[in-house]
Design a protein that fits this description.
The complex is a heterotrimer of chains A (about 270), B (about 375) and C (about 375). Chain A has about 270 residues and is of the alpha/beta class. Chain A has eight helices and 13 strands. Chain A has one domain: Rossmann fold (3-Layer(aba) Sandwich). In chain A, the strands form two sheets. A nine-stranded mixed beta sheet of chain A has the order 9-8-7-10-6-1-4-5-11, with helices on both faces. A two-stranded antiparallel sheet of chain A has the order 2-3. Chain B is of the alpha/beta class. Chain B folds into two domains: about 220 residues, HUPs (Rossmann fold); about 120 residues, Rossmann fold (3-Layer(aba) Sandwich), CATH 3.40.50.1220. In chain B, the strands form four sheets. Chain B has a seven-stranded parallel beta sheet with strand order 7-11-6-1-4-5-12, sandwiched between helices. In chain B, strands 15-14-16-17-18 form a five-stranded parallel beta sheet. In chain B, α3 crosses α4 and α7 runs parallel beside α11. The radius of gyration of chain B is 23 Å and the shape is globular. Chain C has about 375 residues and is of the alpha+beta class. Chain C folds into three domains: about 110 residues, Orthogonal Bundle (Butyryl-Coa Dehydrogenase, subunit A, domain 1), CATH 1.10.540.10; about 110 residues, Butyryl-CoA Dehydrogenase, subunit A, domain 2 (Beta Barrel); about 140 residues, Butyryl-CoA Dehydrogenase, subunit A, domain 3 (Up-down Bundle), CATH 1.20.140.10. The chains are: A alpha/beta (about 270), B alpha/beta (about 375), C alpha+beta (about 375). Chains in contact: A-B, A-C. The interface between A and B is large, with 83 and 98 residues. β13 of chain A pairs parallel with β18 of chain B, so a sheet runs across the interface.
Amino acid sequence: MKIIVCVKQVPDTSGKVAVNPDGTLDRASMQTITNPDDMNAVEAALKLKDETGCMVTVVTMGPPPAMGMLRELMAMGADSAVLVSAREFGGSDTYATSQILAAAIKRIGLEPDDIVMCGRQAIDGDTAQVGPQIAEKLGMPQVTYVAEMHKTGDTITVKRMLEDGYMTIKVQTPCLLTCIKELNTPRYMSVAGIYSTYDKPLDTFNYESLKDDSLIDPATIGLKGSPTNIFKSFTPPLKGAGVILEGDGKETCEKLAGILAEKHII
Amino acid sequence: MATFNNTDVAAFKDVWVFCEQRHGKLMPTDFELISEGRKLADDLGVKLCGLLLGDSVEGIAKELGGYGADEIIVCESPLLKDYTTDAYAKVICDVIQELKPEVFLIGASNIGRDLGPRCAARLHTGLCADCTHLDVDMPKYLDFLRNNSTLDVEGSKWDMDDRNLKMTRPAFGGHLMASIICPRFRPCMATVRPGVMKKLPFDQAKADAVQIVKPAVSLTVDDLHTEVLETVKAAKKLVDLIGADYIVSVGRGISKNVEGGIKLAEELAAELGGVVGGSRATIDSGWLSGDHQVGQTGKTVHPKVYVALGISGAIQHKAGMQDSECIIAVNKNDTAPIFEIADYGICGDLFKVTPLLTEAVRAAKAAK
Amino acid sequence: MDFNLTREQELIRKMMKDFTENEVKPIAAETDKTCQYPRENIEKLFNLGIMGMIVPKEYGGAGADDVSSAIAIEELSKQCASTGDIVATHNGLCCGPIIQHGTEDQKKKYLPMLTTGRKVGAFALTEPNAGSDASKGQTEAKLDGDHYVMNGSKIFITNGYVADVFVVFAMTDKTKGTKGISAFIVESSFPGFSVGKHEEKMGLHGSPTAEIVFTDCIVPKENLLGREGKGFGIAMQTLDGGRIGIAAQSLGIAEGALHEAVEYTKGRVQFGKPISKFQNTQFTLADMELGCEAGRLLTYKAAKLKSDGLRFTKEAAMAKLFCSEHAMKTTTKALQMFGGYGYTKDYPMERMMRDAKITEIYEGTSEVQRIVISANMGL
């Protein structure tokens, strides 16, 4: 049994983000991190590895700097890594991306007792689409929003979160699961892991490696092949400055309450 | 199915809205999306249909008509009683391939976000997630840009006849807004977050006039590859931030007395007639449970009044509450970003200010 | 000459930054307040392979180099000098001498205990009458058949009341002065071993410091570390290596204080502008930055020399001396920048300043470091 974890290197949007004078995002100003939900997926895979001794492969579609992230994930304990990178893949929307990743997963090799794990969503796109779309392209069942999971033989029982509770769902391997932060607390890299990561295998798949897969059709990958396109992007204007009331005592609060009452806000 | 050519754009007509039901009850987002769908259908000059799946759910369909749906397509089967990706995706894709809607909207609930991408992948079409604004009409879209962006609208060239659905959504944690289109494939799919679109007033006459259509459903046990063992509702009281008119949120500023800070927030919320929310920091620290979270990865809220106590106003929090009608911020630090979007700010210690504010509100209400 | 860290060293830094941010920082103030040993975090550091990281792989460690070890201690100390101290002592002062001077049997027995066995180690040299003048120790070990009988006491022992394995120095021949001192590996479970007073200190409250007492303590003959009479040399050599750890710890304290000062002065507005805009503040911060950079170079160089098997005594002394004095100066000046707030416990500055002081004293006072440096100058 092996577990294939799809991960993405993303800008750290929770930190300070600089905006260029023309209103576009200064992407260079942002630190890159492994997408948080993907870390939960990696941890889940490593936990299963601890229990069963299975292999864990991490795969990412991205530019060459993503290799640094793959080395970190192998320092956490993953056994091998695959970088999917090619000019032809650039500009892909979620549909195109999921095709490419599905093809990559097929090339890595999928056995009936394997599991594909993903994070629920990435903090840059925030779409939560790639996981389910990969599942569709691989023709395997999916369970999303996994907050708890137990494996017995070929069956995985998961707690799938809803807004106001959860569903308990049983699914057989091979299957795809998307993970949320409630699932676990990702481990750190270990010293032993750090000293062995550069010896672990890291393969690169480019267009040539994948082009023979039926999913890789120039008409459906990359910017040109993506069903969705960006029509316009813009930064939202800052809301108009409000009023900072003077003081912080009883009078100030009474003044504010008065304003709110006058405007029928309370 | 082999004849489903979804690049033949002209062959697709009508706006559809997936109407999610859980245990026989429609989700509030359904009414919001039907209302929004009505606008789009009017702009396009086409029918608005709700798509309802379940087991013996025909009875709840009429209510959707009251918000503007012309027709409700009801797909029934015992196998549709509980949501499963496989059953719902199959039935929906079957009926879409049959009836060819041009636009398909889904509420971005946990279920919607599971279902939407699966269907989009199967149909080989585009999906835009978590949309906050939808337009087909170019003049209306440009107006939206004028009021909601820093773009030089007049200085750019636009194809005023463009009828593609322009799906606007936040990205990069809310720092960036993008309008997405799906020009070459149909249906154009979008998921919309609960609480974002405004519900139209209910019209009983329209509800009575709605058409119910029940296409054949082809679904067998073999189509399902997951098994739902049980559905459990959260034992604790749900914090309904989405519908609240008044929200009092706490942030890191309560760290020196977490219990005390939450209590003060609860008192102010009670006085205002609202609920307590929290920034991501409070949830990550375990001070409040996840359903209290307001922000990019929490809930998006549009209350009448949003009071931010000891919240710095980081961008991902702002993304969840910046469209509140009135934002009041209390923070020790006068350079906290929250003051940039607050309508009213008080620079001070929330432990001191909050009780005074609660009292002042009580007095002001009593005086009315 | 390559001033860059290796890829692995960069990953060590990243890992320790994350760990420190998530696990150490949140409890640093509480640890200082309650004087509680950060047991859970030390467990986690064992699990990650940081405790005992320099122990070779065949004995259960990660076989990490000394620069990696310095980086780990540095990162920890930016937020909690106590945690940095516990790790530095365990790695440098207990694992260190056993790796250097242990027999194969001793290494096979004790190094796994100190790594996978999760037993904490300590180093016991100092006595009430033997501080800087380490040769004046009174603790004795008399050979009696197949064991030594040890009597005496050691004070100010870091990890004293949590360690299971101690490297202890005792006189085996009182007539020979420093040449009569021998080193031993003593387990806390040996009969006659006890922990005395838990020391109440000005700072480093999370680091468990204690007196240890030997009352007819039975130490097996095979626990003699190195040869009889070679103990003083072993102690000095061990301290050379340990100094790199303390240099890293002091460096971390200074860097932590500098970071806090920069953040605070950027936000603190007085006289119409952030105080970081005043030239006096900028110059002071510039000096702190300069000292940190210099301290890093000295520390990493000493560590690299040690890893490469070259002589590093002078360099280690220079690094320790420089970084500890810089830590004291930096924390003092940084606290000044915080004004009244710096003096309160709401901010970490006063703790950092209290923590910094000991670095000028232990593992060889600044005066002793100057002796070591000048002794290596051919004067």
